[in-house]
């Protein structure tokens, strides 16, 4: 248990930050899952729409420091490629 006031404050701050980060990561995963489900179903329009919704959510996670910027860039790139390949397979 923390003995000093500053240590107790750091514990409170860490708990709040962890809760925020957990919620943000969960939200990102939900948006990414929606894109992946649309791609798996072969629905290009739904996949594009889901991707448009997921992109800002991923970028926000990077801006807020929840996810690393390169991680977000990689995820966006891979999702984009999967959505694009869906159109090539049909067309």
Automatic annotation (TrEMBL):
Q: Which GO terms describe its biological process?
A: translation
A Gene Ontology cellular component where this protein is annotated is: cytosol
Name the domain of life. Bacteria
Q: Which UniProt keywords apply?
A: Ribonucleoprotein, Ribosomal protein, RNA-binding, rRNA-binding
| Lineage of producing organism | Bacteria, Pseudomonadati, Pseudomonadota, Alphaproteobacteria, Acetobacterales
- What is stated as this protein's family in its record? Belongs to the bacterial ribosomal protein bS20 family.
Query: Under what name is this protein listed?
Result: Small ribosomal subunit protein bS20
Protein's job: Binds directly to 16S ribosomal RNA.
What GO molecular function annotations does the UniProt record carry, in alphabetical order?
A: small ribosomal subunit rRNA binding; structural constituent of ribosome
Annotated segments matching region Disordered: 1-26
Q: Which InterPro entries match?
A: Ribosomal_bS20 (IPR002583), Ribosomal_bS20_sf (IPR036510)
| Matching HAMAP family | Ribosomal_bS20
Q: Which PANTHER family match?
A: 30S RIBOSOMAL PROTEIN S20 (PTHR33398), SMALL RIBOSOMAL SUBUNIT PROTEIN BS20C (PTHR33398:SF1)
Q: Which organism is it from?
A: Neoroseomonas oryzicola
């Amino acid at each position: 248990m923390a003995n000093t006031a500053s240590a107790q404050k750091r514990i409170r701050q860490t708990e709040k930050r962890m809760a925020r980060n957990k919620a943000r990561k969960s939200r990102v995963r939900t948006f990414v899952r929606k894109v992946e489900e649309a791609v798996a179903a072969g629905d290009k329009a739904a996949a594009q729409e889901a991707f448009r919704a997921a992109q800002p959510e991923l970028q926000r996670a990077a801006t807020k420091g929840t996810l690393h910027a390169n991680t977000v860039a990689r995820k966006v790139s891979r999702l984009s490629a999967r959505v694009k390949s869906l159109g090539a397979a049909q067309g």
